[in-house]
Amino acid sequence: MKTRIETIEGFWVIGYKHVGTTAEIPRIWDKLNATLKIDNISVDTFYGVCIDFDREGKLHYLAGIQDLVDRSDVEKIKIESGRYIVATVENGIPGIKPAFQALHEKTDVQFRFAPNFEKYLYPASATDHVIEVWMPIK
Asked: Which residue ranges does the record assign to the AraC effector-binding domain (predicted)?
């Protein structure tokens, strides 16, 4: 797994929020993709933001993009500026959880409290897409 350190400016991700298990997340992506199709919006970067886990162990997750029109049925979350450790995911979507786990096990970085996120890159000229996981560090 390739890793790197990035420093970014903060930005907003706008999309649909899910509270529940990871097995239910594909439904929220289906909803986002349907909205993009209806609104004729084409983008090459998508974000899956892992906001937090609640006391019941449910994941709070937002599937979105940076450019979605702020509508009444969407929510937004701020991706904080700062340093992140970034890993390129191997083996597609099934590789996301192992990538996050491998980053959590790193001892040479100090994590900070802010949302983690998945970044899905679908460049128009590419034949394959790239998935990265981003974790905030000090």
From this structure: 1-138
Report the distance separating Cα 109 and Cα 105, nearest Å.
Answer: 10
Radius of gyration of the chain, Cα coordinates, nearest whole angstrom:
15
What are the backbone angles phi and psi of residue 95, rounded to the nearest 5°?
A: -85, -5
Looking at the predicted structure, is the pLDDT value of residue 4 above 90?
yes
pTM, rounded to two decimals: 0.90
